[in-house]
Amino acid sequence: MDHNNILPVVLAGGKSKRFGENKSQVKLGGKILIDYILTELIDEFNEVLIVANDPIIHLSSDKITKTEDFEKNLGPLGGIFSSMKWVKDKNKSYQWIASFPSDTPFFNKIIFRNFLTKINEKESKLFFMNSNEKRHNIFGLWSIDLIEQLKKDLENGSRKVEKWANKIGVKTINMSFEKDDPFFNINTKKDLEKAKKIIND
Hints:
This protein is α/β, with parallel strands linked by helices. The chain has one domain (3-200): Spore Coat Polysaccharide Biosynthesis Protein SpsA, Chain A, CATH 3.90.550.10. The chain has 6 helices and 9 strands. The protein has a 7-stranded mixed beta sheet, with helices on both faces. Strands 2-3 form a two-stranded antiparallel sheet. Helix 2 packs across helix 4 (147-155).
């Protein structure tokens, strides 16, 4: 799959309720959390979009653009739609949105490359990554063709990524990892402490 057809999007509009503060901005190993995924993406792509409603600090790069949700409190599905709407409003030629969370410091571009090699665009309009058979609903590849259906379903109250994806028809791509799961995400302060230990090992 041609990278030029894909816009990588980092979803950073969550309220981080379990963490107690905006977790994308916390420090881990001397670097703020969101910069881990941004560093991987700017190496792979010419343009990266962040969807975030609050003012945030992030890696300085001409490749990075920030936009807000078109409407707040719609969850990650709202962030996906906002990124698709951004593509349309800016007359960009991307055919796919690749979504990433802002709280997974151990995910890397090699995993994403492997994910793309296993995708047949004719099989689905939506693909999610699995690790050791566990599905990750925020690590996805979404066809821009889904924009009208997503808009309609958001208007009708859809909020859960998992339920919406199951209804649309999602294909999962599984990857196996023997050691630490690179999809490990930081939801709580306890998770942050665990991540610090992993980095220091």
